[in-house]
Design goal:
The protein contains four helices and four strands; from the N terminus they run αβαβββαα. With 179 residues, it is of the alpha+beta class. It has one domain: SecB-like (Bacterial Protein-export protein SecB). The chain has a four-stranded antiparallel beta sheet. α3 packs across α4. It is globular.
Length: 179
C-alpha cells in the first residue's frame, strides 16, 4: 500500500512545467541585523513636563541590494516622529536589514518575495528595536500596528502600471524593479 502513494521523482517535468522545478526554488534567511539606528529627543526634559498626548507619524521604506546571483540584502527603514503639540518629543529611525538567499525565482515572483516576504520577516525585529529604544529613552512604550506588505506591494504594482500607461508605454504588465 505504501507504494501506491509514492510519487515518481525520477520523471522529467513536462514542457509546460516550469524552470522553477529545474532551478530548484530556495529561500533562506542568512542573517538579520540592525544596519543603522538613530534616536533623538530634541525637547529634552521638557517632553516629560508636558501632558502626554502624542501625535505619531510613521514613514516606511524598503530597499533591495542584489549581493550576488542568489543573495539579496533587504533594508526596511522605519522613521517614527512623535510630537507633542508642534514640538518633536522624539524621533527614531531604524534600518533593519536582512540577508536572504533566494534562488529559482524571477521577475514578478522575485519582486513579490523581496517586497512582501522579506519585510514581513524584518518587521517584528524593527518593531522590537523601536519599542526598546523608546522605553530606554524614558518615554511610554510604542507598539506599532502591523503592516500589510502584500497590500502595499499590490498598490505599488498598480501605480507602476498606471504610470506606464500614462507615459504612453502601454506596459500593462509593468512591475516594480529590483535594485
Amino acid at each position: 500500500m505504501a507504494e501506491e502513494n509514492k510519487t515518481d521523482t525520477a520523471a522529467e517535468p513536462s514542457a509546460g512545467e516550469g524552470a522553477a522545478q529545474d532551478a530548484g526554488q530556495q529561500f533562506n534567511v542568512q542573517r538579520v541585523y540592525i544596519k543603522d539606528l538613530s534616536f533623538e529627543a530634541p525637547m529634552g526634559i521638557e517632553a516629560f513636563k508636558q501632558q502626554w498626548q502624542p501625535k505619531v507619524n510613521q514613514e516606511l521604506n524598503t530597499k533591495t541590494n542584489k549581493i550576488d546571483d542568489s543573495n539579496y540584502e533587504v533594508v526596511l527603514t522605519l522613521t517614527i516622529t512623535v510630537k507633542i503639540g508642534e514640538e518633536t518629543a522624539f524621533l527614531i529611525e531604524v534600518q533593519q536589514a536582512g540577508l536572504f538567499l533566494i534562488a529559482g525565482l524571477e521577475n514578478q515572483a522575485l519582486a513579490q518575495v523581496l517586497n512582501t516576504t522579506c519585510p514581513n520577516i524584518l518587521f517584528p525585529y524593527v518593531r522590537e528595536a523601536i519599542d526598546n529604544i523608546v522605553t530606554k529613552g524614558s518615554f511610554p512604550a510604542l507598539m506599532l500596528p502591523p503592516i500589510n506588505f502584500d497590500a502595499l506591494f499590490v498598490q505599488a504594482v498598480q501605480q507602476a502600471r498606471q504610470q506606464a500607461e500614462a507615459q504612453g508605454e502601454g506596459q500593462a504588465d509593468a512591475e516594480p524593479t529590483v535594485n
